[in-house]
Specification:
Length: about 170
Amino acid sequence: MIKSINIASLMTCLILGLTTNSLTAKEIHQHKSLDIGDMPIPKILLDVSRDEVDGVNVHVNIENYILNAPNSVDTEHKDYLQGHAHVFVNGVKRQRLYGQYIHIPTEWLVKGVNQIAISLNSHRHENWVYENKSIVGSAFINLEAKELVLHNYSSQPLTNLHANHNQHAHH
């Protein structure tokens, strides 16, 4: 079955995607980059759902990465990169993230298409990069649309869509 796509929504998503990707890339690149070296490549995918009261909830699915606060560095798992994440909404850095779940309130969103992007960062605020690309997950959403998520992007897609149950996904 072929889904019909609202051309206006698709064009808005593409136009907003070009401008907000530039803003996000600019914001992300304000920090120094740090290559992952020989470590397993961290992978990321955002799962966005409507919140029953306000805005949306985001589950950050990860593989090969330990997402934690600077004061709770995991010294037992030296075989994976670790750090925190930066949360961007429409190109604006909103906060740091130390766990896999975040609530995005409606007040951070605009009417129509919005982009939520999450980059993985070292605890020295360097952007983790692989092959000169920041490791980032992004979702384009529209609260007014029947289908909330219009497009989902990952610089390093998950190999296992149930990664939160995988032994290499760390909370």
